[in-house]
């Protein structure tokens, strides 16, 4: 009998290891386990300590145990805690719980998370620890004020609207980084009351670097690596030229290593998009008082890996039936490069025909300077065996 049970156990184990549920995946992307697990403790059973300037607080047990955990939370209770920072009994949660970021999560993702917590996370009876904050300071009502002052604007699951909706990859990247990924919790500077100074890319402060528990989480607005290197870093904690240490290691082991290929593309694409915003701003005023060029345009190869390789591939070959190859492509190698320039500048779209969906290429006219556009044009005209002559950009 015991053996049969063990055999069934193994089968179940193999089954669950094979396919993570949607909710389990979202829990990884949101890294709930990082905070809700004590060192050596049962996952999600709480107890991890968060030092604050006024005393220590402890993350709570969020397993489905009905007395110690959140087993009695309805979906609405859960949604309120995760997106609005309000516990079932109505008290405001300390902002160590990154609900201002989770506020951006879609209903669908919150539902998936709820199902995962109620049905897949093993219950634990571990009791919650009281905070060490003196009782007067621990009164939670000031947190409602905090919410009111700083967080209300980003609440109500605002869809991410400040990015070009047409660019699905960029939108997905923004959603993951600004929402569930809560990367700003460490990489965005905090103000006097510990609120993050910005929660999305519409502000220049967002992800501009911050010190946290003796570690500096650097600015993610001018990452100087190729998209492939960045992906390696978030997948493995190391890349050809870089390696990760400190609190970011945990983010990688518990969260970003599990990203699907598409989500990894989206996050890296979104993060590197900050570079061209900086570049575009610089391009607007490229000449110093003495007439020298203060802004050095990015070279074609780097631009290609930032903006094009996700879809067209490092080898320029694209993807069968979705993204065209640029190798030995007539439009690319044409004597007159006008079409090539127009495609990059204005974007393009495959026609939608019966039974075939249409694929879009984004427009780059607002993200690259003229010189940069020219650099990338010359890069694709001169790579992978394409032998077209350089365009002078005149
Ligand atoms: C950066 C750390 C951090 C992360 C990440 C985090 N939490 Fe929390 N969470 C906390 C802390 C700390 C508390 C307790 C706050 C308090 O007591 O005021 C908390 C409280 C909660 C509560 C209220 C529980 C109760 O006992 O009433 C819920 C529910 C919750 N978290 C769910 C989640 C879920 C789901 C995720 C992932 C989507 C998550 N948390 C990710 C730190 C975190
Ligand atoms: C718990 C705090 C924390 C969170 C959350 C966090 N980071 Fe980090 N991150 C750091 C620290 C600290 C470093 C610096 C350590 C190092 O580079 O070795 C860092 C470094 C990085 C680097 C390397 C930067 C460079 O130029 O070398 C990247 C890229 C990065 N983080 C991306 C992210 C992304 C994407 C997210 C959200 C999914 C995220 N981080 C969430 C703390 C954090
Ligand atoms: C989000 C995916 C995506 C990105 C990023 C992307 N493209 Fe495209 N590209 C496409 C798709 C899809 C098409 C096909 C559009 C069509 O059929 O009109 C295309 C078409 C092209 C074409 C026309 C090829 C032909 O034979 O008609 C060129 C040239 C091109 N892209 C170059 C680039 C360059 C250079 C970059 C970077 C600056 C880039 N693309 C970025 C998806 C992308």
UniProtKB/TrEMBL annotation:
- Using the record, list the residue span of the signal peptide; answer none if the entry has no such feature: 1-19
Taking every annotated instance into account, which residue ranges of this chain make up the domain Cytochrome c?
18-121, 168-275, 295-384
Residue positions annotated to bind heme c 1 are 32, 35-36
Subcellular location as annotated: Cell membrane
Indicate what this protein is called per its UniProt record.
Answer: Putative diheme cytochrome c553
Identify the cofactor(s).
heme c
Instruction: Tell me the residue numbers annotated for binding heme c 2.
Output: 183, 186-187
Q: Its GO CC terms?
A: plasma membrane
Kindly give the SUPFAM superfamilies that the UniProt entry links to this protein.
Cytochrome c
How is the cofactor bound, in the record's words?
Binds 3 heme c groups covalently per subunit.
Which branch of life, at top level?
Bacteria
Native source species: Buttiauxella brennerae ATCC 51605
Residues bound to heme c 3 are 308, 311-312
| An example Gene Ontology molecular-function term | heme binding
Q: Which UniProt keywords apply?
A: Cell membrane, Heme, Iron, Membrane, Metal-binding, Repeat, Signal
Spell out the PROSITE patterns in the cross-references. Answer: CYTC
Which InterPro entries has this protein been placed in?
Cyt_c-like_dom, Cyt_c-like_dom_sf, Cytochrome_c-type_DH, Membr-bd_ADH_cyt_c
